[in-house]
């Protein structure tokens, strides 16, 4: 049996990993704590750690993992901006789940968009109170509007297919354009022409705060912004200013740049200590979900299969097809 230490465990993780672990010859010790320099020592006795999006896998954590005999970092997610890849290089491999269900994330982006545009989140509350008034609920047709997609990888393309299905015109920006018919435009032109902008690029030094004061000024009045990728793609203060001034018509956010302390936790009995997040949540045309775009049955099953497969391949001496090889400077 290969022993692994599993960090930031939630009940739904256990269901999917427990169902498959024996098949892969893997024994799992679950920890609710996030992985950090302080908690990394808990992995002692395991050969690998399984980590998620808000775990801290910086230089210090990697050093503690190494000291405690860990030989592999297995991310159970696609993004890896929380890993210091240069610190891990030549110390231990880092593997991830590059694709589990791009549809899960793309469909969640659509859910955010439709909810905001047609105000169904408010209608739900109103009708539960037997208030059947429609005042304030005027939306707009997405059909015929222009969607600008930043990052046309697996999730971006899945979202494009969905939005084409509802009759949106699509333009895109990606430094590595994909094959097939898609109108790629420079980033500035995308900001100027889009009615809806959806972020599907990774967080790198180039994409950090790609939505900022300057880019918001270039955007159409009443633009809608969707972020299901990584929080720090958006300068949140600039977003709030844009919403306050009426420049931005709505924002659907599954991620937030300071999310790690808050998302995935039940804080309903406490005072929210992040005023910026509190301001965002209180805005009537902002919809915040707590990094849940991936959370479907299909995606969780694939995440467990691929993560356990990655671990088994590593300790069986097989090639690591999902190893992350650093290409660009990644911001932690
Ligand atoms: P992917 O690697 O298939 O696609 C990323 C695309 O971004 C690529 O086409 C790449 O060329 C492009 N890109 C790179 N640098 C860019 C730049 N400077 N400007 C514009 N585009 C750039 O990744 P994916 O599977 O489509 O995932 C996209 C992102 O979604 C991930 O990086 C991750 O952060 C996020 N994600 C979020 C969730 C969630 O639950 N909210 C789940 C999975 C992934």
Q: Ligands in the structure?
A: nicotinamide-adenine-dinucleotide
Order of adjacent strands in the largest pleated sheet: 8-7-6-9-10-11-12
The profile of the biggest β sheet is: 7 strands, parallel
Through-space gap between termini: 33 Å
Report the structural category: alpha/beta
Radius of gyration: 21 Å
Q: Can you characterise this structure?
A:
- The chain contains eleven helices and twelve strands.
- By secondary structure, the chain is α/β, with parallel strands linked by helices.
- Helix 1 crosses helix 11 and helix 4 packs across helix 6.
- The C terminus is likely disordered.
Brief synopsis:
By secondary structure, this protein is α/β, with parallel strands linked by helices. 33% of the residues lie in helices and 15% in strands. It contains eleven helices and twelve strands.
Secondary structure blueprint with pairings:
Layout (H helix, E strand, L loop, with lengths): L1 E5 L4 H8 L7 E5 L17 E4 L7 H9 L4 E4 L9 H4 L5 E2 L6 H17 L1 H9 L17 E5 L3 H12 L3 E5 L9 E2 L2 H7 L2 E4 L13 H6 L4 E5 L8 H9 L3 E6 L21 H8 L3 E3 L8 H19 L17
Parallel strand pairs: 1-2, 1-3, 3-4, 4-5, 6-7, 6-9, 7-8, 9-10, 10-11, 11-12
Helix pairs in contact: 1-11, 4-6
